[in-house]
Amino acid sequence: MKLRGLYAITDANLKGLNLARQVEQAILGGAQIVQYRDKSDDTACRRLEATEVLRVCRAHQKPLLINDDVHLAADIGADGVHIGKHDMNFARARETLGSQAMIGVSCYNQLALAEDAVALGADYVAFGRFYASSSKPQATQADLQILHNARQRLDCSIVAIGGIHAWNGQALLEAGADMLAVIRGVFAADDVQSAARAISRLFL
Fold first, then answer.
1. Is residue 187 within 8 Å of residue 14, measured between CB atoms?
2. What's the CA gap between 107 and 167, in Å, rounded?
3. Which helix or strand (DSSP H or E) is residue 51 part of?
4. What is the structure's pLDDT at 16?
């Protein structure tokens, strides 16, 4: 399945009074995929929140992926998981979640990592950060050329992440990205739905 559009990622540091409501506003603004991201050790809270977010995603028929936590994704019946180099390896994630689960892989600024992920069956590969990011300020800097190269060599969906807003996302799409993964550009906005809609319009 070819993925395209806004990929909204929640941030534990930006939680409002109702995370599920924020996610619903992002979806109403055009988000096509949602990722629940929380690195805390509060297992019970994370499970409760992820379950509520999944309920919203199901109501709007949008897939929910869980960041890093393959077991949480399996426990609540999420649509898949996003994994990085320090998380469970791809083969174990696939074995745990099954053949129908969506699995995305962080590839930073390394095309070789993306090629390996695609060979294993990744549904998408993510590159970034492309712009300054307060969510992940120490993340590897990526350049537009990696999107050009990935578009030419990979037959899968390509995600760009890192400091993306409505005013800087177009260049990433023109370089080859299929999806724009956004955290603060959506969930730190005063009006989440409007922020999501502004980014979604880039895909029209």
1. yes
2. 24
3. helix 43-59
4. 61
The first and second tokens of residue 9, run together, are 């990622």
pLDDT per residue over 9-58, tens digit each?
998 887 666 899 999 999 999 999 999 999 889 999 999 999 999 999 99
Can you tell me the distance from the alpha carbon of 116 to that of 121, in angstroms, rounded to the nearest whole number?
Answer: 9
125-145 pLDDT per residue, tens: 999 999 987 766 777 799 999
DSSP codes joined into one string, 83-142: E-TTS--HHHHHHHH-TTSEEEEEEET-HHHHHHHHHHT-SEEEE---S--SSSTTSPP-
CA distance 147 to 138: 20
* Domains within the chain, CATH numbers bracketed: 5-203 (3.20.20.70)
What's the rounded mean pLDDT across residues 69-95?
Answer: 93
Tokens 């409007």 locate to: 194
> Side chain identity at 72, as an amino acid letter?
L
For 117, half-sphere exposure in the C-beta direction (CA atoms, 13 angstrom radius) is 31
Instruction: Identify any residues that bridge with 125 across adjacent strands, giving them in sequence order.
Output: 105, 158
pTM above 0.85, yes or no: yes
Assigned token pair, 60? 């709007």
